[in-house]
Amino acid sequence: MEKKVALVLGSGGARGLAHIGAIEALEERGYTISSIAGCSMGSIIAGMYAAGQLKEAKEWFLSVDKQLILRMMDINLLSSNSLVKGQRIIKELEKVVPDRPIEQLNIPYTLVATDLINSEEVIFRKGSLFEAVRASISIPLFFQPVQLGQRLLVDGGILNPLPLHVVERTEGDILVAMDISGKDAMPVDSDYEPIDVDGKLAEIGAKGINIPKSVEKQLRQLGHRVDVIRRRRAEDLGRYVNFVGLLDRMSDLQIQQNTLLSLRLTPPDVHAVMRQYAYNTFDFDKAEQIIADGKRLMNEALDAYEQAEK
Question: What is the pTM of this model?
Fold first, then answer.
């Protein structure tokens, strides 16, 4: 029996490279992807797969390094709403997969963006592949928004980072989600290593150096004061939320909660999930590791699904 899949790929920057591994896991296990949907980075991978050129896309992403990332940043000096124009990265992607109408792709493909003017989700099922992708990946404040008619479009992940409800369904398929914004705690490091004053003094003594008792006392007092300062700093969680960190964390929480809402409204049959802080948004130079993790996570999710179906 053919095992058909309606596949949904979520938003999450460089973590979206996990989608490549997820697709490889599905195909290696005999599943046929009959339709696909994506958001933000998920829209890129979904589009390249629907165009039949995921292999070429994978090779390109594996070649990306930090220097190439910097070269693709077309800084927007004259803009008051973004740092980067976003056209250079689209031109690079078009070298891998030439633009074409969405309705002419190999399988049904859907992607989403967010309309800032009308406060609503915008669903693309036809028109230019890369015009739609450019809108879907427009991270606010980073990429310049895309104006289409009376719409001003930004990243689809603002409203729907895992667009389960928009993927085209066919009879007998199963709904599979690759979620790369899994609920996660903000990474903090509250541990510190106390200064071992006694150990340092013992090392000095072993070298035959005699330290006066008064100096030893002062060193112990100094070590205690430094320990107190280091401990208080380690326990001060406020240092993780400066203006930039606070905005970033607010965005993370919004994406996490919207992802959970999408999962509740449209529960998938298979849910593979990567934690939100597994990789940073711009960790594209870690492509090989992220792809491998995506494959592993999808295989684990399929193991659970197949075991439950027995």
Answer: 0.83
40: annotated active-site residue: yes
Mean pLDDT, range 104-121, rounded to an integer: 96
CA distance 85 to 107: 30
11, 34, 35, 40: the catalytic one is 40
Q: Which of 34, 35, 136, 155 is catalytic?
A: 155
Burial letters 89-118, b for 16+ CB under 10 A, else e = bbeebeeebeeeebeebebbbbbbbbbbee
Q: Which long-range contacts (CB under 8 A, 24 or more apart) does 190-196 make?
A: 190/234, 190/235, 190/237, 191/234, 192/230, 192/231, 192/233, 192/234, 194/227, 194/230, 195/223, 195/226, 195/227
Query: 9 φ, ψ to 5°?
Result: -115, 125
Q: What's the rounded Cα separation, in Å, for the pair 42 and 136?
A: 9
The torsion of the CA quartet 179, 181, 183, 187, rounded to 10 degrees, works out to 140
Q: What is the pLDDT of residues 242-288, one digit of tens each?
A: 776 777 778 888 899 999 999 999 999 999 999 998 998 889 999 99
Is the CB of residue 167 less than 8 Å from the CB of residue 266?
Answer: no
The token pair at 84 is 């980067």
Active site residue 79: no
* CA 120 to chain CA mean position, Å: 22
Record the tokens describing residue 232, joined without a space: 């208080």
